[in-house]
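Open question from group meeting: does this chain pack into something compact, or does most of it stay loose? Before anyone orders reagents, we agreed to write out a predicted structure and look at it together. Recording both the input and the output here so the notebook holds the full record.
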Amino acid sequence: MGTRSKRSERCPRCRLHAHLCICSTTPRIDLGTRLILVMHRREWSKPTATGPLALAVLINSELRIQGYLEQPLDFSDLDSDQRRTLLLYPGEEAAVLSRDFLSGDPRPVNLVVPDGNWRQAARMGRRLPGLEHATMVRLPEGAKTDWGVRRESHPEGLATFEAIARALGIIDSAEVQETMEEFFRLMVTRTFQTRG
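Structure tokens returned:
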């Protein structure tokens, strides 16, 4: 990547170079499922972080930043009889997310998703305070990632946006997943345009 492309202005929302911005094509999806994206403060500013793009797509979503000593995170507010809380966790000890798994509890879902690489997400998932009531779930095996910008140490590793889309495909509908993945493919295409 040349010096000019490194310094060119980026869209603050989609994080792509301004002339490749995809914000005007962002789908807006309103679901009963609530996404809670958890990011470390150092990850938030990285243009390769895909989780923030999911916040732009999903109306019922929020961001919680980890890593500020004066503002420790606490997820105890998610402990409610009205909703069940699922923590997307990349570990073998987590239950596989499936429609059969979901059928045992009809309540709407709080989906907590740690954003980072495999190791970061696993470490963060074990340390998030106030999530003792949450059920850890992992995605079933699926297609490999379309996101080749960050190196993954695990072959089953996905971009955070992809993981969210696949989870919502199981929790909500295949149409939601397809809409999100189509938008993600556009972002991937535009990203690689900047890299030649």
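Observations to bring back to the group:
The two ends are 8 Å apart (CA to CA).
Residues 10-193 form one domain.
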